[in-house]
TrEMBL record:
Keywords: Oxidoreductase. One of its GO terms (cellular component) is plasma membrane. SUPFAM superfamilies: NAD(P)-binding Rossmann-fold domains. This is Reduced coenzyme F420:NADP oxidoreductase. It comes from the Bacteria.
């Protein structure tokens, strides 16, 4: 498994529940987190609140661009609406870096949630197309923000499915995922499988609504500790 050194991670869209939740767990695990926002003041306020909740100082806030410029790893935690425009605006800041996408292109109608058609195949592939020099990895699509933000919530039984085309980057993100949940991260395959992982969240949301729960994913048939990309 890749050595999991403390890293500075920029969370673009870090004022939202998913960005704050992942930022919270990553900071608790020892990483330096900078929450990004379209508004630097909003980012700073969110970061101060989260730092207090986590009891750690290593959470700061900045405008999305400054956050992405300052970090070695960039996590995209924004809605799919406006995704292409935002990614394009951050392209130079993300060039040559690992970019993690947890973006789920979903829509809702009177029948509930469903996956949207994305021209590039998936949000993660869209980011990769827009920033070809970045190494995009898909992860964290199925972790529920309220649980990430709940210090009492045990996420160690949930699997984080990670997809990407670069093995080293994928192992790096799998190590971060294990930090977030305290559990298992699985190599789900190539980045194109984000086309299946992203809309799968619509199923979880639908189940949540029907059973009034917060469902997550756990696969059967695997050894308990899987953290390496299989040869
Ligand atoms: N919520 C969950 O439980 C969950 C779980 C798994 C995956 N996800 C995925 O994670 C992503 C973020 O989820 P979320 O619930 O945190 O979303 P959100 O609250 O709707 O948005 C997150 C942040 O994105 C920024 N934002 C909103 N619209 C934007 C736009 N057009 N352009 C640029 N920035 C914009 C906002 O920050 P500023 O206004 O401060 O810029 C907002 O606080 C989504 O793609 C979602 O599918 C969410």
């Amino acid at each position: 498994m890749t050595e999991n050194l403390p890293t500075r991670i920029a969370v673009v869209g870090g004022t939202g529940p998913q960005g704050r939740g992942l930022g919270y767990r990553l900071a608790l695990a020892g990483h330096e987190v900078v929450l990004g926002s379209r508004d630097a003041e909003r980012a700073t306020a969110a970061a101060e609140e989260l730092a207090q909740q986590a009891g750690v100082a290593r959470i700061t806030g900045a405008a999305n661009l400054a956050a992405a410029e300052s970090a070695g790893i960039v996590l995209l935690a924004v809605p799919y609406d406006g995704h292409a425009q935002l990614v394009t605006s951050l392209a130079r800041a993300m060039a040559g870096k690992i970019v993690i996408s947890c973006v789920n292109p979903l829509s809702f109608d009177r029948f509930g949630p469903y996956g949207r058609n994305v021209l590039a195949g998936s949000a993660a592939e869209e980011a990769a197309e827009l920033v070809p020099s970045a190494t995009v990895v898909g992860a964290f699509h199925h972790l529920a923000a309220p649980l990430l933000l709940d210090p009492e919530a045990d996420l160690s039984h949930e699997d984080v499915l990670v997809c990407g085309d670069d093995i080293a980057a994928k192992e790096r993100v799998m190590a971060l995922a294990a930090d977030v949940t305290g559990g298992r991260a699985l190599d789900a395959g190539r980045l194109r499988l984000a086309r299946q992982l992203e809309p799968l969240t619509a199923v979880l949301i639908s189940v949540n609504k029907r059973y009034k729960t917060r469902s997550g994913l756990a696969l059967t048939g695997l050894a308990p500790a899987v953290g390496k990309v299989p040869a």
